[in-house]
Amino acid sequence: xxxxxxxxxxxxxxxxxxxxxxxxxxxxxxxxxxxxxxxxxxxxxxxxxxxxxxxxxxxxxxxxxxxxxxxxxxxxxxxxxxxxxxxxxxxxxxxxxxxxxxxxxxxxxxxxxxxxxxxxxxxxxxxxxxxxxxxx
Length: 136
What we know:
Elements (H helix, E strand, L loop, with lengths): L1 H15 L5 H24 L2 H15 L6 H4 L4 H7 L2 H23 L3 H21 L4
Helix pairs in contact: 2-3, 3-6, 6-7
């Protein structure tokens, strides 16, 4: 009985799951850019609440990023590997999440210089993704 119930729940869950589109990715990228600007504004205004809000938005949004349907359904193995390197994307996401936590911790401890260095590391991870995966 439990197996049947779990199976039904999984089918319903997958049935309602929407595909991730290019428009969704663009929207998420814009949200992350805004979150980075919020963190930077928090630095300039010396306001921990602004930094925390930006960090929270960045962490929530970075977890949503994934390959779009067009990239996952590509039949060319090499192209699919180049555009759908999920292992690298997950690694970058983890580093950004970790550095975001470090920004909040350092800034709340009063060490703005270290927080800014972690901000720079996040920018570096963003560019790594754009250069390698997005072909900038």
